[in-house]
Design a protein that fits this description.
- Helix content is 81%, strand content 0%.
- It contains seven helices and no strands.
- Helix 2 runs parallel beside helix 4.
- The chain is globular, with a radius of gyration of 19 Å.
C-alpha cells in the first residue's frame, strides 16, 4: 500500500490528534498526583489521592472510548487503524498502571513509603511527560521523526532506570524488612509501579512502528 498516496486524502487536521493530546494530559495529571501521594504516610490523604487518580483514570477511559468510536466511524485515518487503536490502548494501560499503584497504597496502607517508591513515581512522571511530547508531535510525524525517535529512546532509558530502582529495592527489602506482611505490601506496590514504566516503554515501540511506516 502506498502510504504517501493515501495521505493525500487524510484530513489536514485529523480529529485523532487532539484526543491523544487530551489523553496524555490526563496521564500527566495522574502521574503528578501519584508523586504527591508518595510524599505522605497519612492513610486518609493517600485515600484521597487515590480517589483523585481514579477520577483521572475514568476520564482517560472516556477519551479512549472516544478514540475507538472515531476509528469505527472514520474511513480514512492518519495512520493505520490498528496502530491508532494500539496506541490508545497502551496509553490507557499506563494510566491504569498509575491508578493500580495508588489503589494498592490505599488498600495495603503501608507503614511508610520508601524512597525507592518516590524514585519510581518520579520516573513514571518523566515517562508521562515524554508521552505528552510524543502525542504533541504526532501530527507532524514526518517532519519531527528524529525528535520523536529520541523521545522513544528516553522512554526506553526511563524503563531501564526503573528496573534498576526496583531490583535494588527488592534486594534491600529482603535483607532488611523483618515483617513478612509489610514486605508483601511494599513489594506489590513497587512492582506495579515498575510495571507501569514497562507499559510506557511499549507506547514508544508502537510509535516507532508508526514512524517506520510513515516517516
Amino acid at each position: 500500500m502506498n502510504n504517501s498516496f493515501f495521505s493525500r486524502f487524510t484530513p489536514k487536521e485529523p480529529k485523532f490528534f487532539p484526543l491523544f493530546k487530551e489523553l496524555s494530559a490526563v496521564l500527566l495529571k495522574a502521574s503528578d498526583l501519584l508523586m504527591e501521594c508518595m510524599e505522605t504516610n497519612d492513610h486518609e490523604k493517600q485515600d484521597e489521592y487515590y480517589r483523585m487518580i481514579k477520577d483521572q483514570e475514568r476520564l482517560g477511559d472516556k477519551l479512549s472510548h472516544r478514540i475507538f468510536d472515531e476509528l469505527n466511524a472514520t474511513f480514512i485515518t492518519p495512520f493505520d487503524r490498528e496502530d491508532l487503536h494500539d496506541l490508545a490502548m497502551c496509553l490507557d494501560d499506563v494510566l491504569d498502571g498509575i491508578n493500580s499503584s495508588a489503589k494498592r497504597i490505599a488498600l495495603y496502607k503501608p507503614k511508610s513509603i520508601p524512597d525507592n517508591a518516590r524514585e519510581l513515581a518520579k520516573l513514571i512522571r518523566d515517562a508521562s511527560e515524554c508521552l505528552g511530547k510524543i502525542t504533541e508531535s504526532l501530527d507532524s510525524l514526518r517532519k519531527d521523526s528524529s525528535r520523536i525517535k529520541a523521545y522513544c529512546k528516553d522512554l526506553h532509558d526511563i524503563e531501564n532506570k526503573a528496573d534498576d530502582v526496583y531490583e535494588l529495592f527488592v534486594i534491600e527489602l529482603f535483607e532488611n524488612e523483618k515483617d513478612g506482611i509489610e514486605l508483601f505490601k511494599l513489594k506489590e506496590i513497587l512492582y506495579e509501579m515498575e510495571k507501569t514504566t514497562d507499559m510506557a516503554e511499549y507506547v514508544g515501540k508502537i510509535v516507532r512502528t508508526i514512524i517506520i511506516k510513515y516517516a
